[in-house]
Amino acid sequence: MNIVVLIKQVPGTDNVKLDPETGVMIRSGKDTIINPLDENALEEAIRIKNSHPNVKVTAVSMGPESAIKALKEAVAMGADAGVLISGRAFAGSDTIATAKALAATIKKLGPVDLVICGERATDGETGQTGAMIANYLDIPVQTYVSSVEIQQAGVVVKRTVEGGFERVEVPFPVLITVNKDINEPGFPTLAGKLRAKQVEITIWRPEELGLDKSELGLVGSPTRVVKVFSPKLARDTILHKADGTTGPVDELMKFLAAKEVL
Ligand SMILES: Cc1cc2nc3c(=O)[nH]c(=O)nc-3n(C[C@H](O)[C@H](O)[C@H](O)COP(=O)(O)OP(=O)(O)OC[C@H]3O[C@@H](n4cnc5c(N)ncnc54)[C@H](O)[C@@H]3O)c2cc1C
């Protein structure tokens, strides 16, 4: 069975800088971590690998070359291989351009049975990429997955839905997005770290994916982040001191009426 896990490298800090002109995040490669829910995705793939024969786990990322670090970490945790798609032409991708590029990468890898993504990434946080990749691969998607059972010809997943759970049986190939209830991510072992040092991360450039230039990066992104700013928190305090009369209450009622709350 071939499993692909999608790994996004995200800022490991709240001090995220955005380009005020383009609205695109400045990714310096410093202070980066694997998106926490992608660690859950990876852990699930490794759990399946450890409990079933002939499972290959490939971690895939799109990002600057510093994302090699995230893929090496994935190998140290138990993935068999890592593929990075990287190049200036990918810069400024929205979820559509990201999903097209990642779907093309998965297709290039050959037949896949299960694709596992995090439910959302902590930086862009749209939660759209997984479902869009499934769309471009033309395979079914199951979101908010909190458990997976591997069957002969597919998976049975438990999905978190409003007010409870849903159990869905779906044939291979399938893409799932996982939430944090699925497992507790483990840590790289010493043997894993040593293996990661030896494993060469494959890097594919934009022109190797068979996509047209017009589908990549900022050019291929219909979404524009028009403006990015930090919202100003402003609070006015009006104090009416109790003076034994109904005055303060009357003032409050007038204030609420003026705000059309009453
Ligand atoms: C402030 C800000 C606002 C943005 N607003 C929008 C917007 O409104 N619309 C829009 O289309 N784009 C928007 N983007 C761009 C968006 O962040 C990118 O398209 C990005 O590639 C998708 O990121 P996400 O965090 O939304 O991913 P999500 O959809 O939240 O990620 C879900 C999962 O998909 C996988 N995944 C996502 N990206 C990658 C990757 N590069 N490599 C490997 N796996 C990956 C991971 O498994 C991840 O857990 C915005 C970016 C910023 C910084």
TrEMBL record:
> Which Gene Ontology terms cover its molecular function?
electron transfer activity
The record places domain Electron transfer flavoprotein alpha/beta-subunit N-terminal at: 22-213
Q: Which cofactors does this protein require? A: AMP
Q: Which InterPro entries match?
A: ET-Flavoprotein_bsu_CS, ETF_a/b_N, ETF_b, ETF_beta_N, Rossmann-like_a/b/a_fold
Superkingdom classification of source: Bacteria
Name the protein family: Belongs to the ETF beta-subunit/FixA family.
User: Mind telling me what this protein is named?
Assistant: Electron transfer flavoprotein small subunit
Species of provenance? Desulforamulus ferrireducens
